Amino acid sequence: MKKIFVIIITSMFIGSLSLVAQSKSAAAAAKGGGTEGVIKGGVGMTWIDGEAYYLVSLAPEIAFGKFGIGLDLNLNISSKDQKIRKEDFDETYDYIRIIRYLRYGSKGDEFYIRLGALDYSKLGHGFILYNYRNSPSFDNRKIGTELDIDFGKWGLETVYGDFAGASVLGMRGYTRPLQFTPAKDIPVLGNLEIGATVASDVRGDSRDTSLVITGVDTSAANSGTMTVVGVDLGLPLLRSSIADLTYYLDYAKVLNYGHGFATGLEANFSFLGVVKMFSKFERRFGESDQFIPAYFDAFYELERYQSTPGNFHSKAKTLAKTISQGPGYFGSLLVDVLGTIQVEGSYQKLDLNPTSGIMHLGTNTGDKIPVVMVSAGYDKRNIRNNKDVFTLDERSLLYAEVGYKPYPFMIVSTLYTWTFAPVKDTDGNITGYKPQKRITPKVSFVFAL
User: Fold this and answer.
1) Which one, 1, 247, 324, 412, has least CB within 10 Å?
2) Which tens digits make up the pLDDT trace of 282-335?
3) Any idea of the CA torsion for 294, 354, 361, 395, to the nearest 10 degrees?
4) How far apart are CA 55 and CA 40, in angstroms?
């Protein structure tokens, strides 16, 4: 118990230092330093798998120009024995993960880098790696990276999932070939972009499709790394202050397995700077057997490998059994109002497979609206029908927080999460995941820097 209070007091002390930094950074900003951010912390209760815990949290986010840092310290203290939940700090890596992210710039800038949790990573148009999350479980959070560089005539996008070990590695290089010629000033054609992508799960079990048990020995079928390669073409059709329109064509091949094509339009609109819309619609076609578009997606780390006594499942096994069911479609839409309220959604489905629906929804009211706060994200795959869309099960990921602001610096809210907890064997190796529900009523304090 004494250790708990030491940690809590330390957290409060860090918060006090941050508040001191607030006044200093405000002065720096007045002189052109450009420092901004928020300090968010709170106390409350949370229920994890039916057990009650006291919650103490500290989550400052600070930006210095294009630099940004976000911390995420959550102490779950058991209501039974007043001890910190052991699953939260049972490895050295758990302490490093208190740093949620470090970043410079934003996706789409000429230079962008992020270290830490990857929430919805994408390469190119997303036909190979789309909405990839390296940390689908609170108890198995990872530190990965995104690095993008755009030199104008050519550029590079990269993703890596976990610095603690082998993980998903993705790279896309691209060039705008006409920018090297006198044709660079030709409208539309001058910005033609050609790219090539390779993404691989470099873990040695990422191609396992079955396990063979002989006595006390276990061997895997098709061991090795799973790799997807592809090429793409993008042609900007319109560039203006009101609208951007880009046509694209993608081809992807899963090495030793199947392939597929996609073509579509990306359309972005801005209405007087008040409302911005980002939309995308693509048609998927020419898919052979043993091919899954956006192979590395939001559910990949959950589905890639699960082994329990008498049961084995892997993403590679699903891929090997996939039979082409004709063409399909994918669409997405994000609406941003005044840079404060954001609503987004995407959906994809194969024409001839009634259970192939995959959906993503999200919303955020930001911090500029008085009285209320809403933030939510939801992912669901293998959707069977309309009634199945919002059924929480092993095919779902959800977080939703609804809050009331009695004062500008205080939020009284309830956070509900449906995620997954890792299942470990006797040696501490993760063999799969099981659904985990968390309900967290809390009081948070937010201070702007």
Assistant:
1) 1
2) 999 988 999 999 999 888 988 888 776 667 788 999 899 888 878 999 999 989
3) -80
4) 14
Does any domain span residue 92?
no
Please provide residue 319's backbone torsions phi and psi, each rounded to the nearest 5 degrees.
-60, -45
Integer Cα distance of 298 and 28 in angstroms: 40
Q: What is the pTM of this model?
A: 0.73
Q: Which domain holds residue 351?
A: 105-448
- Rounded distance between C-alpha atoms, residue 283 and residue 326, angstroms: 11
Consecutive H or E run containing 362: strand 357-364
Identity at 404, one-letter amino acid code: Y
Whether residue 100 is contained in a domain is answered as no
Q: Quick one: residue 202, left, alpha or beta (phi over 0 = left, psi -120 to 50 = alpha)?
A: alpha
Rounded-to-integer distance, Cα 84 and Cα 5, Å: 11
Using alpha carbons, select from 409, 417, 372, 429 the residue that is nearest to residue 392: 417
Specify the DSSP class assigned to residue 103: E
* Pick from 446, 362, 447, 422: nearest CA to 141: 422
- What CATH number did the domain enclosing 145 receive? 2.40.160
> How many distinct structural domains can be found in the chain?
1
Instruction: Encode pLDDT of 240-250 as tens digits.
Output: 878 889 999 99
Decide: 360 and 131 in contact? Cβ < 8 Å: yes
Residue 72 lies in a domain: no
